[in-house]
Design the sequence.
């Protein structure tokens, strides 16, 4: 009888240890990081490139952005004045070196 | 004046130009100073005599309203024609990026002088029309160039994913 009880207790302890180890091994997977833009999920996946990943743009400081805008305005104004002086369809499409359009 | 003949007074005799200039008063705008704000009452037409005047409009940049340069006026150039066009409210903000001086020509004094001297009024009005027409043509071209880019941006994904 004593022999039977000791075997039973050892078996229960073994099952408990196995259960704890199993629980530790199969822990919950962490939740995935939320996407910034849910509409990206609707983009089709391409063969070589998966562009559904979040496209992050570097944040440009306001002062630098303002300088870029001012430069853009000056260049665009110069291009528009060149069109006014010699109006042709080609003159209307000339490219400038503005960083905002490249 | 520090320049030959302002665009507003071109075609006038020296005496007539001096008489029109005498209607105004000189205003010094220190560097960073504001001459007029967007929406304020437009009672005077201005001519830059020294320095520069930046004409700006507020634009949303990173969720902040930032004054963005629309155009810059240098000595001899006129600005502030809202003074001549109802409802006489400025549609831009004018500031001086450096220490500047402008000639402010009050609308009431100008119109009274033009009524008394129609030949002068005719020439000045022609000059104002020319300045406005040039700017309209430039802004039409700038607008079309920006529209072209908007359309290119809109049609870009369609071209990439036929």
Sequence:
């Amino acid at each position: 009888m004593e022999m039977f009880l000791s075997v039973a207790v050892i078996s229960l302890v073994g099952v408990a240890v196995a259960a704890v180890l199993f629980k530790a091994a199969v822990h919950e997977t962490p939740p995935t990081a939320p996407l910034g833009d849910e509409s990206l999920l609707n983009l089709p996946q391409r063969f070589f490139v998966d562009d559904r990943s979040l496209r992050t743009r570097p944040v440009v400081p306001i002062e630098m952005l303002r300088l870029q805008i001012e430069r853009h305005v000056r260049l665009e104004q110069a291009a528009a004045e060149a069109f006014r002086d010699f109006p042709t369809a080609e003159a209307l499409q000339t490219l400038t070196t503005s960083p905002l359009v490249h | 004046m520090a320049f030959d003949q302002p665009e507003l007074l071109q075609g006038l005799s020296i005496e007539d130009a001096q008489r029109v200039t005498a209607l105004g008063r000189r205003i010094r705008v220190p560097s960073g100073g504001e001459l007029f704000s967007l929406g304020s009452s437009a009672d005077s037409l201005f001519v830059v005599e020294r320095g520069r005047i930046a004409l700006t409009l507020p634009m949303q940049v990173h969720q902040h309203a930032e004054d963005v340069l629309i155009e810059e006026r240098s000595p001899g150039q006129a600005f502030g024609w809202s003074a001549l066009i109802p409802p006489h409210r400025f549609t831009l903000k004018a500031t001086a990026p450096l220490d500047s001086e402008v000639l402010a020509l009050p609308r009431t004094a100008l119109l009274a002088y033009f009524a008394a001297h129609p030949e002068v009024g005719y020439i000045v009005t022609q000059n104002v029309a020319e300045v406005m027409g040039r700017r309209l043509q430039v802004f039409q071209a700038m607008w079309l160039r920006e529209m072209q880019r908007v359309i290119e941006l809109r049609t870009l994904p369609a071209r990439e994913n036929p």
